[in-house]
Amino acid sequence: MEYKDYYAALGVKRGAAQDEIKRAYRKLARKYHPDVSKEADAEARFKDVAEAYAALGDPEKRAAYDAIGTRQAAGAEFRPPPGWNSGFEFSGRDAGEGGIGGGDFDASEFFEALFGRQAAGARGPRSHGQAAGGDHHARVQIDLKDAYQGARRTITLRMPEVDGQGQVALRERALEVNIPRGIRDGQHLRLAGQGGAGHGGGPAGDLYLEIEIVPPANFRVDGRDVFVDLPLAPWEAALGATVTMPTPDASVQLAVPAGSTAGRKLRLKGKGIPGAAPGDLYAVLQIALPPADGDAARQAYRSFAASFGGFDPRREREG
Amino acid sequence: MSETPRTLLEGVIVEEHVEFTLIELGRASGADAEQLRALVDEGALTPRGAGPDDWRFGDDALRRARTALRLTRDLELNPAGAALVLDLLDRIDALEARLRRLGARLAP
């Protein structure tokens, strides 16, 4: 198991006051919170920061963490001696409710060894009386093609479950799900009864899948509308052409009008993401220049230039 | 190699076919009724219906409630702060969508 340097994660000294730790956490949380951050590794960074604050923000946990010594280097192999944390009892401020910074993060093995899984915010269901199971959430990535055509996806979930002894264990569960045609990025799919188990005869909770559409490289998605880059040769743009254009579910023939310019958008009505009100597909035109990598090619460019002697692209620029 | 056949689960698209009551949205989002009422007061959630008992939350209420809950918890924001962040995030999304329409590549 890897030792985690929580002080380094928050960028504070070991002797830092609680106030200082809180300030450092808040600043980093604003920077890396996955809901607001544009940093590439925001999710992983926030997880580290939240875990560090869950440990250091609570004086009891901080004392326990400090007690395992300062000689450990971050990332070094860490082997807890048997019974090493048995001297600590936690008042469990976070337990069950998901306290500040201790809500949803998947705690590292190190954190769980130190504080137990309960402290990491795995919410043990109330076991007394009849109660409905909790609703669960997971995120699923699909291809743009899947949104056009629908798809079957096998989804593997790891869910914390409480066994008969009240221990929390992660159990893997595979579900085969029908992704409906026409689903859009950011929408949620509700699978009734696939959430947490109910207690005392109560109904099971629901499972919500948040859909993330991952488009191919040249495609962009905005709600129902889809944009695709369409490169043209200069003569195709100038003279007009019928070209083959890729769409998410097939290729189509597209008539490019003469005199097309780079950046111009050609709309294919109703060819966006399907649905009762289907989106549109836009071809965003680009002009690709053939390379001048041989005598013949260079000569062609020279005679091209000679044919347009008066052309100054910096003067007569028109939309 | 054959696997045991599993039942194919059919889901419902929440944003199009589901309206939540206050209690249902609480269960689905993990927020408590108090927090949801505060978000309605701030205008961050806009249910149909006259009072809490009649409220029906549709469209992207689930996403907004979950985001607000995470912001409230992780950044220690109050409902007004969370509502402001939601509004600003909507504006950023709209601006980025316009940039994408113009063909710009945005950093992830």
Can you give a write-up of this model?
The complex is a heterodimer of chains A (319) and B (108). With 319 residues, chain A is α+β, with helices and mostly antiparallel strands. Chain A has 3 domains: 6-120, Orthogonal Bundle (Helix Hairpins), CATH 1.10.287.110; 136-214, Urease metallochaperone UreE, N-terminal domain (HSP40/DNAj peptide-binding domain, Sandwich); 219-307, HSP40/DNAj peptide-binding domain (Sandwich). Chain A is built from 8 helices and 11 strands. Chain A has helices spanning 6-10, 18-32, 42-56, 59-67, 109-115, 144-149, 234-239, 295-307; strands at 136-143, 151-162, 168-179, 188-191, 207-214, 219-222, 225-232, 241-246, 251-256, 265-268, 281-287. In chain A, a hairpin with a 4-residue loop joins strand 8 (241-246) and strand 9. Chain A is flat and about 85 Å long. Chain A starts with 5 loop residues before the first helix and ends in a 12-residue tail after the last helix. The model of chain A is unreliable at 82-104 and 120-127 (pLDDT under 50). With 108 residues, chain B is mainly alpha-helical. Chain B has one domain (14-101): Multidrug-efflux Transporter Regulator, Chain: A, Domain 2 (Orthogonal Bundle), CATH 1.10.1660. Chain B is globular and about 45 Å long. Chain B starts with 7 loop residues before the first strand and ends in a 7-residue tail after the last helix. The model of chain B has no long low-confidence stretch (mean pLDDT 87). Chain A binds chain B through residues 26, 29-30, 33, 35-36, 38, 40, 46, 50, 98, 100-101, 103-104, 132, 134-135, 137, 152, 154, 174-180, 183-184, 186-192, 194, 205-206, 208-210, 220, 222-223, 227, 229, 263, 265, 282, 284, and chain B through 6-16, 18, 27-28, 30, 60, 62-63, 66-67, 70-71, 73-76, 85, 89, 97, 100-103, 107-108. Strand 4 of chain A pairs antiparallel with strand 2 (12-13) of chain B, so a sheet runs across the interface.
Mean pLDDT of chain B: 87
The overall pLDDT of chain A, averaged over residues, is: 82
State the distance separating the first and last CA atoms of chain A: 61 Å
- Could you give a short account of the major beta sheet of chain B? none
Spatial arrangement of strands, main beta sheet of chain A: 6-7-11-10
Tally of separate helices of chain A: 8
DSSP E strands of chain A, number = 11
Uncertain segments of chain A: 82-104, 120-127
